[in-house]
Design a protein that fits this description.
Length: 291
């Protein structure tokens, strides 16, 4: 069954909750459009301009232009309030499985949920797929061949994630994949909380683990605990806000969930060895030298 091209324009709502075995190639444009993806479907998202607002029962976030999301968890709602363009390829696991052909000697590993910067190759293939799905006569190879190339590029893009599978618990590859997907769900929830505050009980519940089992499993796979990962993300965001924006330190303190500005400044200097004033002064000098 060939992929189905479906444009989604301003003020349109598309609900794909009726199950089928087709891949859907979606081209969103304009503003105030919405799309509903059923649970357990695999979807690939690429904002071309502006961003896509994504929502699950657990959280809400913005996927920015230039980022790539592979989603395969709960039901997902997407839309754009601003006048932008985006592409998505979505379908059931069975629809994707027809196009996933591992290289000789490699195990048959499914696509895993991930969020990262989109490479030039993945952007090129996703845009090409949208064009060919809309006009199959433009590609002598056929639409299915372009989907095959996109799947191969996505699998290669996720090679670092696949390398984590031997660290996961489970006697079979399928069980280890399930374990990794649970931990990636936890990691996604941590990333979505910019203030660095994590509720360990809530994270454990999302993975159907006890808190102790979550800490142990997460550390075995990623080399750090969920709390350590959250603290690292908060430190990275603090550096980015101090160095690359003019946001007042008091507002950064509130945005990152610190109790007071003095507590934030002490933590910042302890982590980076510099005060916020020194970092901003150095950033200002760097911009002047570049100018």
């Amino acid at each position: 069954m060939h992929p189905i091209y479906r444009p989604l324009r301003s003020h349109e709502l598309l609900d794909l909750s009726v199950p089928d075995d087709s891949l859907h190639v979606l081209h969103g444009s304009g503003r105030n459009n919405q799309l509903a993806i059923p649970s357990r479907w695999i979807s690939v998202w690429l904002p071309l301009s502006e961003g896509i607002e994504l929502e699950t029962p657990d959280c809400h976030w913005l996927l920015r232009a230039g980022e790539l999301l592979v989603w395969r968890d709960g039901a997902l709602r997407a839309g754009s309030r601003r006048d932008g363009r985006w592409l998505a390829v979505c379908g059931s696991p069975a629809a994707w499985a027809r196009h996933q052909r591992p290289r000789p000697g490699d195990p048959a590993v499914d696509l895993l949920p991930s969020e990262s910067r989109c490479t030039r190759e993945l952007r090129r293939l996703t845009v090409r797929l949208a064009r060919v799905a809309r006009r199959p006569d433009l590609c002598p190879l056929g639409v299915d061949a372009v989907v095959d190339m996109l799947c191969a590029a996505l699998t290669e893009h996720q090679r670092d994630l696949h390398a984590l599978l031997p660290r996961c618990t489970g006697r079979t590859l399928l069980r280890r994949q399930q374990t990794l997907m649970r931990l990636l769900r936890v990691q996604h929830l941590i990333r979505r909380h910019d203030d660095g505050r994590v509720d360990l009980a809530q994270l454990a519940a999302s993975a159907n683990y006890s808190p102790c089992h979550l800490i142990r499993s997460y550390r075995d796979v990623f080399g750090e605990t969920p709390s350590e990962y959250a603290a690292r993300l908060r430190s990275e965001r603090a550096w980015q806000l101090v160095r690359e924006t003019r946001m007042p330190v008091c507002e950064i303190t509130a945005a990152l969930g610190f109790e007071s500005q003095s507590a934030f400044c002490r933590a910042f200097k302890s982590t980076f060895g510099l005060t916020t004033s020194q970092v901003r002064q150095d950033s200002c000098h760097s911009r002047l030298r570049a100018a």
